[in-house]
Amino acid sequence: MESRKLFERRKRRNRYNLKRRATGKPRLSVFRSSKHIYVQIVDDGDGRTLAAASTVEKDLRGKLKTGATIEAATAIGKEIADRASKAGVSDVVFDRGGYNFHGRIKALAEAAREGGLKF
User: Is the pLDDT of residue 8 over 90?
Assistant: First the structure.
């Protein structure tokens, strides 16, 4: 239970700082479970999702062995960058939630940057 409280604290602290620095930019929000990884670009001003991608989508599920690997996170990062460019988004702020910036989260971020997203 204590680790969940610490996670929520990190998440709140991270979001607070992001909202101060965002200056109207959409937020690239990441959620990771033990089996999958989900990412979406959210415009907090309008309260709507501009683009989303996850390892549970049928076209990506066939290509990946599992959704819980660094390879899967890299594929999702490239996919969200592609979908963001189609939606006309190039600058975002990276919301890692309460997750530390390493492993799957870092792989996703690097792949999104390579795909053209700026953060």
Answer: yes
